[in-house]
Structure formats: C-alpha cells, structure tokens
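Title: Request for sanity check on NAD-dependent epimerase/dehydratase domain-containing protein prediction

Description:
We are preparing a figure and want to confirm that the structure record we downloaded matches what your pipeline produces today. Could someone re-run it with the sequence below and paste the raw structure tokens into this thread? We only need the token string, no images.
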Amino acid sequence: STILVTGVSGYIATHVAKSFISHGYRVRGTVRNQETAEKVRETFSQTPGCIEIVIVPDIAKKDAFNEAVRDVDGVVHTASPFFYKVSDFDKDMREPAVNGTLGLLKAVKSFNSKVKRVVITSSFVAMQDFSKGHRPGYIYTEKDWNPVDLDMAYKYPSLGYVASKTLAERAAWDFVRTERPNFTLATINPPMVYGPVAHTATLKSLNQSVLDIWQLMSGQAKKVPSTSVPLFVDVRDCAKAHVRAFESFNGGRFIPVSGSFSFKDICSILQEEFPEYADLVPNPGPPDASETFGIDNSLSKKELQMSFERSLRETIKDTARSLDQIAKRK
Ligand code: NDP
C-alpha cells in the first residue's frame, strides 16, 4: 500500500518515509518545488521504486491537496513551518499550519474514502503550558492542551510556532468531530527531536532542533541556552511511532519520549564524545538542581507497542556525527 507523506523533504519526514518503506509500504511524498524534489530523489536513491514525488506549491491554498490524496491508502501530514522568528503570524504560521491541515483533511474526506487513518505530526508544544514554566511535580499526559489562543499568538510573536501547532491540532480534532469522515485521526506529539540527519541537508538548511545542536558544537552559542522543553525523542523512534500510529487499532494523541534532558547535559556529552569540538562547546557548569515537570505516556507506549529506549548519549552522538559529516562534506 501507498502512504502520502506531506513535506517529505523534512528532517522528521525523511525518517518517517524511510520507516514506512522499511515496513513494506510505498511512499508518495509532497514537496514545494522541483529543486526540492531533486534533493528528495537523491535522499531515496537506494530505493527509487518505493517513492513517488508530487509538487504541492502552496499547502495553505484551498484545494491544494485534492490531487495528491487520490488513491493512497494512508496519509501522514508532517509539513508545517518550524522556526521561532515570526514576523507575520497569519502568513508565516497560521495559514500553512491550520489551513494546510484542514485542506488536507477535507481533500481526504472528499476524494479518497479508502483512507481509514490520518496521522498528523503535531508537537508536545501543543500540550505544554509554557506560562507555568518548569512546573515541578506536574505530570503531563495525552490529555493536556497548551491553553494558547489566537489573541495570544497575535500579541506575543514568540508564541507563534507553539500557537500554530496547537491551533492546527485543535482544528484537526474539531474537523473529525463535526465532519465525521471515513477516517480516524492519530496525532504524534513529540518533544524535542534529535538524532541523525538522513535528508540531503547543508549546514545552512538544518531544521530548527538539529540547528540547536549545531549551534552548541560550532561556537555560535556562547552560553548554554535555557531548556524550555526538557524532553527529547530520537528521530528514528519518532518515525517508527508514526508507522505504529498508522497501524494502531485506536487513534488518539501519542507522545513519543525517550527521556528528559537539559542543554547542559547535551554540552557535557558533546565535550566528552567529540574532543575536536570540545573547545567550541559552551561550558555546561554544574548540572541544574531545579526539578522539571514529569511525563506519563504509558498509554502511548501501550498502544504503539514501543518502549523508546535510546539514551540521550546515543541520540546526541548520532546527531553530532552526522553534523560533523555535513560540515566536512564541502
Ligand atoms: P523541517 O523544517 O525539516 O521540515 C518541515 C517540513 O515542512 C519541510 O518539508 C518543509 O518544506 C515543510 N514546510 C515548512 N513550511 C512550509 C510551508 N509554509 N508550506 C509548505 N511546506 C512547508 O522540520 P522537522 O522535520 O523538524 O519538522 C517536521 C514536523 O515535525 C513539523 O510539523 C514540526 O512542527 C514537527 N515537530 C518537530 C520537532 C522537532 O524537534 N524537530 C518537535 C515536534 C514537532 P521545505 O523543505 O520546502 O522547507
């Protein structure tokens, strides 16, 4: 069977597509333009028969996905803007995130009754209440929602990204509740995603989470940044969670988590494991004494039949190794 993966050029989407292919599926991936299509062909050059690429120039446009959804057996929606410096919330964030998600769901409902499950890459930021800080003692679960709303998004540009993810996920659940389509929904709500880069990337085109690690390795970060989302998942496990969510009996919200972390921990690992970069990494100092919130994702683990056992050290070593290769490629 064939799975539509939107935004297949992305960091997570590449692992998602590879994971579906390794589980015996074919992938139809969407990209924005021909140049990106070529890069994706290069990324999947070992399995050319398993991938087909279609161009959807603007996911925010009405009817953008009407053709792309035809005849596929499942849909995974990952395409969404992920950056923090937002100047025009509507144009940069809300339209691609919310209209993109709703347009895709409408297209599946109207043009492909074969699809029984749609998986959306949401985010743990759609669950975390940032106004409460590190919230010691609190345990997040699949029931939590970030209370951010449209007014707050317009007022505080720094909330642009988290608002886009929260509003898009809410819109998706509202859609299935009111429109009663043929499919059920599963959302994957990952915290910070780290791990090897599998797509054709340069140091200038790194996605936001991997860029955080490169800034720590390359001397661009002079101080250890504060850790606003203190949980991580390895990108390979996050990708597998998408496959399992597609195949799972029940839909729902799933939180893939490998463990907790702080940027201080990451700096220590980078210094210990990569002597060549050690002097560029900001000095972590003593570990943080303050407690952060906890997580109970046992429902997700049970439904996905996954245990998420990769350690922070393994994930960061593999991230840094692939960044080192990208840096030395030129
Ligand atoms: P990338 O930036 O690597 O991937 C984003 C993908 O979305 C790319 O394919 C990109 O296309 C596409 N995209 C971005 N903006 C638009 C737009 N305006 N119109 C159409 N397509 C667009 O990031 P990630 O792989 O990290 O993120 C993938 C998904 O995972 C996102 O939904 C993100 O919110 C979510 N996520 C990521 C986390 C992380 O730590 N990385 C954590 C939690 C959730 P193009 O290649 O053309 O730019």
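Thanks, this matches our download. The domain at 2-329 is CATH 3.40.50.720 (Rossmann fold).
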